Amino acid sequence: MKKHHSDQYKDIFGRAIKAYYNEKDTTNITVHSPDFDDDIIPVEYLFRNFEQMPVLEQKALGLCSGKVLDVGCGAGSHGLFLQNERSLQVTGIDISPGAVEIASQRGLKDARQLDYFNLKTEKFDTILFLMNGTGIIGRLNKLDEFFSHTRSLLNAGGKVLLDSSDLRFLYDEDEEGGIWVDLAAGYYGELKFRISYKDEVSEEFDWLYLDFDSLELAAAKNRFSCTLLQKGEHYDYLAELKPL
């Protein structure tokens, strides 16, 4: 696998999304981590319709209201459902130019290539973070920045809907049935990934899986309410955050 130069940005998600949309190329995106075996993201999964979405995503889309910001919109599947089926005003943002191009071609009226933390001066009633929405936070020490920035983007009465997973299930049980986690190694939900597609591989990036108790503590510290809306089938959950 060819590693790209650090000054040469490879839009891996965008390349895969464009190839699938334009050519029906079903080559998978591969996820690499130093801690786990390689995994794949089937590119067609990024084009799923409402009926194909997990229950937590369906519930989140049903709870959206007002002006919606879909963070990490990808090919636009969530935003298109909200725009076309629920008649909501949706802004989709993603750092992938290729993904944004296809989301626009699919009909998302307001799709922008933009990093969430660079979005300023706009206000929304619902901010949506799905497909492990806490991932973009990166590390625990960036939670305060996340809450501060999120507060600046919410209208009065606004809310955040996000999903994540508690990765403790990946760790061994001790003899008494408890979960053994090496706390000296740092928070177990802080991971590093690379992604690859065909001959290209990304730089390493941080990705955060956040258990609900930790999210609740961080929310309270930053004067947000934190409500567990629903648990998924595999240690995942959907939560609602509101500024206090």
UniProtKB/TrEMBL annotation:
GO terms for biological process: methylation. One of its GO terms (molecular function) is methyltransferase activity. Keywords: Methyltransferase, Transferase. The keyword Nucleotide-binding does not apply. SUPFAM superfamilies: S-adenosyl-L-methionine-dependent methyltransferases. Gene3D superfamilies: Vaccinia Virus protein VP39. This is Class I SAM-dependent methyltransferase.
